[in-house]
Amino acid sequence: MMREIIPADELFSKARAVGQYYGFTPLTALTVKKRGQQKAKAGYPEALATLSLDPVAETVASFLKQCQNIDYAPNPRQPLFVWHTNIAPGRPAQKKATIQFHALGSDRAIADAVIIRALIALVRDLYHEEPVVRINSMGDKETRARYSRELGNFFKKRATVLPEECITCAKQDAFAAAELAIAQECAEDLPAPTEHLSDASRKRFEDLLEYLEMTETPYELARNLISRGSIWNDTCFEVLAGGRRVAWGSRYNDLARHFFPSAPFSATGAVLQVASEGMAVVKTKSSKLRFSFVHIGDEAKRLSIQLAEDFRKAHISLAQDIGVESLTEQLLLAERRESPYLLIMGRKEALEGSAILRNRKTQEETILPLLGLTERLKSFA
């Protein structure tokens, strides 16, 4: 039987470990860096009052508000991959704990893929079950408008055979009516949003599916998975454990623009919610990470996603920034960590199945095969 309540300390420690290995910085670390530089706190954007936010959207909006308060937004050179939780070490956990993973500033499929992989790792650890990932695409504004009209026609044509509450709901909100029909299992012939995708949305969705397949990430296409509200766009996905949804995510470019109108950027996020209890223990400052893994090129990026789980299971003292494209930026981030070793992989190494280990002090380099890599790294630790 899947457990219903997870101790706060376990949630916090496992989320922190997953964040480290998959390249997500804790929001608390960004807040500390900006301490003393925060702008005066502003209220929520007025435009949000006119939108109907579901519970996940409200959680994401709260996260964006915190990013806005510390004036932390991505730039073209360096997207932000951030994880966040409402668990505060040293304080009693809230009854409903949340763990969030966000990719801000990256329009590429790797952003969605890394979040999905991180969620799979965390859910597997927390529930000791193999999670199921269901994925769909609602497309961009153009697609959503087209799909909304299609849903409206669907409910009008079937007004005599579908439940009356679905027909009544459709007159106000076609997406809500579709969710209601799905919940009541009377939507077998409901139009699929992927049949109405714009060219740009179709390309984005195909890129993500290709990325998931090339990184051997298990998923199911879910034609009846729908994101409601105008703040969600393109990819949406859910993670199930024991047949129950434990996490949900989507792209939310329009919601992000409400908080950062002067610097619009792409945004993807996911929220895991679970009942919790107890208190997360305040950890003493850990020692420096031994390895920083830097990589360049699609082949190396895909391998880095797969290797993250090997490193985590082997407890290698390592961090990486999978979502950061620029090698220069990755090296700068590695410099800040002051790791004694760099693990470097480019396209050549990825194709050859190897990586370069560089001693930052002596600049000595050793070529290591990926087969048995974790055991070899332990010998340098």
Molecular structure report:
- It is a single chain.
- By secondary structure, this protein is α/β, with parallel strands linked by helices.
- The chain starts with a strand and ends with a helix.
- The chain folds into three domains: 5-139 and 198-277, BirA Bifunctional Protein, domain 2 (2-Layer Sandwich); 141-193, no CATH class; 291-380, 3-Layer(aba) Sandwich (Rossmann fold).
- The model has no long low-confidence stretch (mean pLDDT 89).
- Helix 1 (8-22) runs antiparallel to helix 4 (109-127).
- The strands form two sheets. Strands 1, 2, 3, 4, 5, 6, 7, 8 and 9 form a nine-stranded mixed sheet that branches. A five-stranded mixed sheet has the order 11-10-12-13-14, sandwiched between helices.
- The chain contains 13 helices and 14 strands.
| CATH homology superfamily name of the largest domain | Bira Bifunctional Protein, Domain 2
Q: Would you tell me which CATH topology of the largest domain applies?
A: BirA Bifunctional Protein, domain 2
CATH architecture of the largest domain: 2-Layer Sandwich
Helical content (DSSP H or I, runs of 4+) = 40-55%
Secondary structural class: alpha/beta
Describe this structure in a few short sentences.
The chain is α/β, with parallel strands linked by helices and 381 residues long.
Tags for this entry?
alpha/beta; BirA Bifunctional Protein, domain 2; Rossmann fold; 13 helices
Write the layout of secondary structure elements.
Blueprint: E1 5-7, H1 8-22, E2 25-26, H2 27-33, H3 55-69, E3 80-85, E4 96-104, H4 109-127, E5 132-137, H5 141-157, H6 164-170, H7 174-183, H8 199-214, E6 220-221, E7 233-241, E8 244-251, H9 253-259, E9 267-277, E10 291-295, H10 298-313, E11 318-320, H11 327-337, E12 341-345, H12 347-352, E13 354-359, E14 365-369, H13 373-380
Parallel strand pairs: 1-9, 2-3, 5-6, 10-11, 10-12
Antiparallel strand pairs: 3-4, 4-9, 5-7, 7-8, 8-9, 12-13, 13-14
Helix pairs in contact: 1-4, 1-10, 4-8, 4-10, 5-7, 6-7
